[in-house]
Amino acid sequence: MASLSHSDSDDSDDSDSSDQYGLRDQTISSYHSNNTTISPERKRKMVLNRDANSTESSDDSETEPPVKQGRFDDGQPTSSLTQMKQMGNYSDFSSKMMMKMGYKAGEGLGKEGQGRVDIVQASQQKGRRGLGLRIRTEDKEVVVDWTDEKPASSKEEVEWMSEYTGEIPDEEELEDWITDGKQKLKIDDETRFCDRKTLQTLLTCKSIFDDLEGFEMRKARSRSNPYELIKGAIFLNRAAMKMANMDHCFNYMFTAPKGLQPNQLLYFADVCAGPGGFSEYVLWRKKWKSKGFGFTLKGNNDFKLNDFFAANSELFEPHYGVGGKDGTGDIMNGQNLEEFQRFVHDNTDDEGVHFVMADGGFSVEGQENIQEILTKQLLLCQFACALSILREEGSFVCKTFDLFTPFSVGLVYLLRIAFRRVAIFKPVTSRPANSERYVVCEGYRDPGRRIGNYLLDINEALNGMKNTGRDVTEVVPFEIMSEDIDFINYFKRSNESLADQQCKALAKIHAFYKNSELMESTQNQMRTECLKLWSIPDRVRAAPPRSDAASLFKKLTGLDDPTSLINGRWEELRMENIKCLERVYNYKCYVSGSQSSLIVSMGGSRVFYWNPRAMKWSHLTQVKCNIPRDTILEVEIVDELKGEGKSQRRSCALHVVDGVMLAGDDISSRNFSERAQCIAMFVKAITKPTLPYLSIVRAKQIHRLEEIDQVFTRMSMRHVKGGGQIPRLCCNILGTDLCFLPSGLTFIKFCKDPWSMAFSRSRKQKYFYNERTRQSVFECPPDFNANYQLCASTRVIWPWGGEVKIHPNQQRHRADLVSADQISQFVASHTAH
């Protein structure tokens, strides 16, 4: 009733007019009650006439008619008039109705006057918070002036610590450095590496945000951050752009390290970094020339390889410690760390990775001020993992949070011992209001892995102290660190600078939270500038388009089908035409295991092979393999054998002979040797030992024709399961205990007419000879090498079947067919050295 009356008074100019509308309502009601048969038209005229009379009356007099002494027109006593005037905000009619119901000004309704006295205020609700909810800290002021913040810029500077020039401590000295004590869960007194006032201001600013409504706070944070619109760009998440940001700022020392040769894979590890944004960026930047190893906790934050839209996840292999793909991925478990170390070294020729990325963290909601303490063991284990798998001169980048305690600072000091250069860096892609920063290390120089082993020992100590109230408080004595003035000063500058930046950012968010109209105006500009500077495409993230094999092949090659690529003059070797190989230095060869065919991959297991009989692409079902999309290879499907006789095991494998396209990279115009190197790298990158259900993919072992005897030394006679009692010719696969049944030898001419290769006896080196111009040069001419199409169309095939004598112990052979001895003699007679 009160609200309705109040609303009525808002629609009118004064209480008198409201009373008139009240009397009008009574008049209309009396007509309804006394004459129910009155027509609507007549009723309308009566009201209009009464309004006209009322208007004339009010126009004739400038003042209201006097009220009778002591009473209203309707008989109300004078005391009621006083009470009605006290009701102030309500119309006379509303006041009368309320008084009849027992209302008294200044008192509540109800028998005992228990009703509320104050008017219900209009809702001041924000966002999705509950009706009437008030945030305690919303009206508090952050005593930090954020308006003088540094202008947004895409240019960033890196400050390195001074280099550690001492010796790496031995194991005994390191053991003496560990200090334990009572577990501590506060940080406000850690002022040895930061000014006290700066630390207290930071903690105060953080505390103000504890009670702010999350959704609205995140909106304010997004509006206030100049770099917010960078987001994930074409990648899975923001983490990928952080890595792109830091890779540029550190002169691409991660994706293009010094000393990495063109024929070498870039090995890297991604630790505690699910869902994998860091790795997606690296794989995108390096295309197929990289191999990644992942180690993260299994669960909701595991690697999401199917969401790698910008890169090929087939080049990345997660590992979870003990149990491999079935492990837990808990990095704080010492056995998991050791197992991951073994796995990485086994798959990098025992050299380790070129760099390690670590991005571990977990929710500390409500305890943000002690995040550094809560995540200390996680930080230590990430450091330990990196130092156990890095190769010499390798690099390391790891996310950290506040670095105020001697424990955290000591960990960074240990990195300074183990690396040539160390820096604390906060990229612009890291939101300025959080405590996040990165420790970046270059030039790993601890070949004995003393520091890494020391960290592993500390982790074991921490695991043993759980639930005891004890903790490791120092990993490097403060006395040792304090003697290094440059190190202490660097840390103070870094901590105080980042704390000041964070306080300003928090104050800015608070201002944007209170005023939803505020918006950072440079967001679009910063996105455009940063993406251009970091060479990242400025487009929306999108899944790769779906297509069929024929369409993809045409898109990649411009050809309708592969017949023009492989439909060539394949000559069969016989004694009559053996002279076709007299230019021995022009040929290389490989042992065939079956008829070769082209395959095209649409990503993962969607691999198709060209069926020349049906003249169409068919799904490859004989082998199970995951091959990066936009790849075209020439392959053989070969049965590999292990053991001999009845216990022999057989598995189907894919042997790669040559290549046209590797993950979108066209290699068809490169020379045969380069293509073979690329294929060897590619095969190594997609090999995943932790997935035994996948078929083996191998690069064919290529031999020079002048070294054909090496081919014959690979041959052996074995009893093949299901092949009867007579041993059969088998070709051993180098570096393994496996073999396969050879079908012959294929010779590939890798040079282009009219060029040929010969050997100079005087200089004892090969040279290039043009048979048309009779020109001889020692440097390879630009038009010497044959591309894939030419190599594929001019091959010489030497089929063996079961009747060509290759091995001395072969019982069956035909004398009229070219034998191994005959071709060896022929090659030797045409070889100058």
UniProtKB/TrEMBL annotation:
For this record, an example GO cellular component is: cytoplasm
- SUPFAM superfamilies in alphabetical order: S-adenosyl-L-methionine-dependent methyltransferases
Molecular function (Gene Ontology), one example: nucleic acid binding
Enumerate composition-biased segments (Polar residues): 26-39, 76-86
Q: Which reaction does it catalyse?
A: a 5'-end (N(7)-methyl 5'-triphosphoguanosine)-ribonucleoside in mRNA + S-adenosyl-L-methionine = a 5'-end (N(7)-methyl 5'-triphosphoguanosine)-(2'-O-methyl-ribonucleoside) in mRNA + S-adenosyl-L-homocysteine + H(+)
Q: Give the stretches traversing the membrane.
A: none
* Protein name per the record: Cap-specific mRNA (nucleoside-2'-O-)-methyltransferase 1
Keyword S-adenosyl-L-methionine (UniProt)? yes
Checking InterPro entries in the record gives: G_patch_dom, mRNA_Cap_2O-Ribose_MeTrfase, RNA_MeTrfase_FtsJ_dom, RrmJ-type_MeTrfase, SAM-dependent_MTases_sf, WW_dom
G-patch domain residues: 90-136
Q: Where is the segment annotated Disordered?
A: 1-86
The protein's UniProt keywords, in alphabetical order, are: Methyltransferase, mRNA capping, mRNA processing, Nucleus, S-adenosyl-L-methionine, Transferase
Q: What is the protein's known function?
A: S-adenosyl-L-methionine-dependent methyltransferase that mediates RNA cap1 2'-O-ribose methylation to the 5'-cap structure of RNAs. Methylates the ribose of the first nucleotide of a m(7)GpppG-capped mRNA to produce m(7)GpppNmp (cap1).
Residue ranges of every copy of the RrmJ-type SAM-dependent 2'-O-MTase domain listed in the record:
234-445
Tell me which EC number(s) this protein carries.
2.1.1.57
Name of the top EC class for this enzyme: transferase
Q: Does the keyword Nucleus apply?
A: yes
Pfam families annotated for this entry?
FtsJ, G-patch
